[in-house]
TrEMBL record:
Record flagged with keyword Chaperone: no
Sample GO molecular function, one term: ATP binding
InterPro entries in the record: AAA+_ATPase, ABC_transporter-like_ATP-bd, ABC_transporter-like_CS, P-loop_NTPase, Siderophore_ABC-ATPase
Entry-linked Pfam families: ABC_tran
Domain ABC transporter: 4-240
Database matches in PANTHER family: IRON(3+)-HYDROXAMATE IMPORT ATP-BINDING PROTEIN FHUC
Record protein name field: ABC transporter ATP-binding protein
PROSITE patterns xrefs: ABC_TRANSPORTER_1, ABC_TRANSPORTER_2
Major subcellular site: membrane
Signal peptide range: none
Protein localization: Cell membrane
Coiled coil: none
UniProt KW keywords: ATP-binding, Cell membrane, Ion transport, Iron, Iron transport, Membrane, Nucleotide-binding, Transport
Organism listed in the record: Metabacillus fastidiosus
Length: 281
């Protein structure tokens, strides 16, 4: 089932187009990751889909309606987004930050209702941040802070959550913690998760559907087997990748890779690169 899709989308800044003639669909109640080299339009696409950034032409359809014409509060009840580097006002407590997720439901003077407080406590409980409720956000570690931001998105009670590089600046343990939380939300609550990731192996491990971008265009979209393979990675990242199987998930894994020389695919001269199982891009 698809509730959200884009048709012939052009997005840019001024006269410079970043995303060109793109058409894509987001599977409902699944985890979708967007991958691609730096500057290929991943974050731009995410911002356009969530109406943070206007698009020049084309259309983005959610539940049969063009999001450009949708009421802001109604849209905010359907989708929540966490930007790449979310920032909050200094001195806010965790509980205060999470309460911002209730904005689409507030009326009049914006006072929180009993229902609002119940949802806030539930979001804190689900993300394992309830013990931080009265603590300053500034005092939290990177992983704790990211979980609090996710709690705020949950308090918004949307069926779709969009995240722009949610693992950036986190160590390996905290990256896994955040991704497992998102996977849990998808499985147990059927939330549609869409996120930009640099790490190819994290994308393969957690995604049901992957969109690979290059120069603002989709090179390949599909399941992990269809996208995380030698030919697609060669075209998208210009690398010669060695693909194996993850012994825990049996999904494709990039074991190592070399950089290919030049733009001509027929050139087989290779530069060695520092490569490891993380395959971060």
């Amino acid at each position: 089932m698809v509730r959200l899709y884009a048709n012939d989308l052009n997005i840019g800044y001024g006269e410079r187009l970043i995303v060109k003639g793109l058409s894509a669909q987001i599977p409902d109640k699944k985890i979708t990751t967007i991958i691609g080299p730096n500057g290929c339009g991943k974050s731009t696409l995410l911002k356009a889909i969530t109406r943070i950034l206007p698009h020049q032409s084309g259309e983005i359809i959610l539940d049969g309606a063009n999001i450009v014409k949708e009421n802001t509060k109604i849209l905010a009840k359907k989708m929540a987004i966490l930007p790449q580097t979310p920032e909050s006002s200094s001195g806010l407590t965790v509980g205060e930050l999470v309460s911002y997720g209730r904005f689409p439901y507030q009326k009049g003077f914006g006072r929180l209702t009993k229902k609002d407080y119940e949802v806030i406590d539930w979001a804190l409980e689900v993300t394992g941040t309830k013990d931080f409720k009265f603590r300053s956000v500034d005092a939290l570690s990177g992983g704790q802070r990211q979980r609090v931001w996710i709690a705020m998105a949950l308090a918004q009670e949307t069926e779709m959550i969009f995240l722009d590089e949610p693992t950036t600046y986190l160590d390996m343990a905290h990256q896994l913690e955040v991704l497992e939380l998102l996977q849990k939300l998808n499985i147990e609550q059927e939330r549609t998760i869409v996120m930009v990731l640099h790490d190819l192996n994290q994308a393969a491990r957690f995604a049901d559907y992957i969109i690979a971008l290059k120069n603002g265009e989709i090179v390949k979209a599909g399941n992990c087997e269809e996208v995380i393979n030698h030919n697609v990675l060669k075209e998208v990242f210009h690398i010669d990748a060695e693909i194996g199987r993850d012994p825990r998930t049996d999904k494709p894994i990039c074991i190592t890779y070399n950089l290919l020389k030049g733009e001509n695919e027929n050139e087989e001269t290779i530069y060695p690169a520092h490569a490891d199982a993380a395959a971060s891009y």
